[in-house]
Amino acid sequence: MKVCTTIPEARAACRDARARGKRLGLVPTMGALHEGHLSLVRAAKAQCDAVAVSIFVNPTQFGPKEDLSTYPRQLDRDCRLLEGEGVDILFAPPVEEMYPPGGVTWVLVEGLSEKLDGRSRPGHFRGVTTIVAKLFHIIEPATAFFGQKDAAQVAVIRRMVQDLNFAVEIVACPIVREADGLAMSSRNAYLNREERGRALVLQWSLQEARQQFDAGERAAAKLISAAKEVFAGEPQVVLDYFEIVDPDTLDPVERISQKTLVAVAAYVGMTRLIDNLVLNP
Ligand code: AMP
After folding, report:
1. Which of 102, 195, 210, 247 has the most CB atoms at less than 10 Å from its CB?
2. Last residue within a domain, chosen from 138, 173, 208
3. Where does a domain end: 123, 141, 173?
4. Which of 42, 132, 149, 273 maximizes ligand 1 atoms within 8 Å of its Cβ, making it the mutation to test the pocket?
């Protein structure tokens, strides 16, 4: 695995792979890798001839009161995991490489960036789209792999790719879960034992919505109130949002008549967790 920390090195490694006729896949991450990330790497390995992974804890997608300074960083371990998966190129730049002084240009997907997580985390998606656009320019992947776990992020990035004519195919991969159903996340490491137990309420609320849907309920408001009742049983977990939306526009739907995203975010102690599922009538 070629490890690159500068943009010229990464560009050269990727150009070299492409020159050898390889279809290049990119998996952007913030590191502290778990099976969720590795599932994206495996999908990239399966669909591309060469795989680049980026590890960059992107400061511009964190709010001033968020966990940028405490976000888990474990580059050596991540490197070993990626070596084990047969990754070709790792791009792990320092912050100054991606954001040298004087930068004033942003990529903003208007509207979509203020929905779901964007509403609770002002500026978050502007940071995400800006760094992902930069990565796309540096790596020039044929395909980029993202997790459905961050469903709003997938919608925002798809829109950016369409609006800015990026020549990259976006693939969304299924959510990887712990044995008890908790969606894997680097932030799960923040949870103490009690919080780890309480965190299951996100998954239970989604399951409640799915059960009502399977029983024939199509009114979004009914599913939302049933899910909120599940949260009422776990008062120490603070619900941020439970929404039923169109997966592309992220606008709320009233009745579920086509593919629909059910998304939840909640604070378990200080830790903000998200999860979602897709309903297909
Ligand atoms: P992050 O390091 O949190 O920025 O995540 C990097 C990528 O991994 C994003 O596309 C995430 O959606 C994806 N990802 C994170 N957790 C999971 C998971 N449990 N299952 C599938 N993909 C995930």
Report:
1. 247
2. 173
3. 173
4. 149
The answer to whether the CB of 173 is under 6 A from ligand 1 is: yes
Query: How many angstroms does the Cα of residue 219 sit away from the middle of ligand 1?
Result: 30
Instruction: Establish whether residue 39 lines the binding site of ligand 1, counting it when its CB lies within 6 angstroms of any ligand atom.
Output: yes
Nearest CA to ligand 1 atom 6: 29
Tokens matching residue 27: 């998996």
Question: Are residues 251 and 120 part of one domain?
Answer: no
User: Burial of 196 by CB count in 10 Å (0-12 exposed, 13-18 middle, 19+ buried)?
Assistant: middle
DSSP letter string, 100-117: -TT-------TTGGGSTH
Based on the fold, state whether residues 134 and 196 are members of the same structural domain. Answer: no
CA 37 to ligand 1: nearest atom: 8
pLDDT digit string, tens, across residues 108-151: 999 999 999 999 999 999 999 999 999 999 999 999 999 999 99
Residues in Cβ contact with 270 at an 8 Å cutoff, skipping those fewer than 6 apart = 190
Q: Tell me whether residue 129 is exposed, middle or buried, using C-beta atoms within 10 angstroms of its C-beta: 0 to 12, 13 to 18, 19 or more.
A: buried
pTM score over 0.70: yes
The segments of the chain whose pLDDT lies below 50 read none
Q: Are residues 121 and 197 in the same domain?
A: no
Please report whether residue 48 resides in a domain.
yes
Is residue 184 a contact partner of residue 34, using CB atoms and an 8 Å limit?
yes
Dihedral sign from CA coordinates of 25, 29, 32, 37 = negative
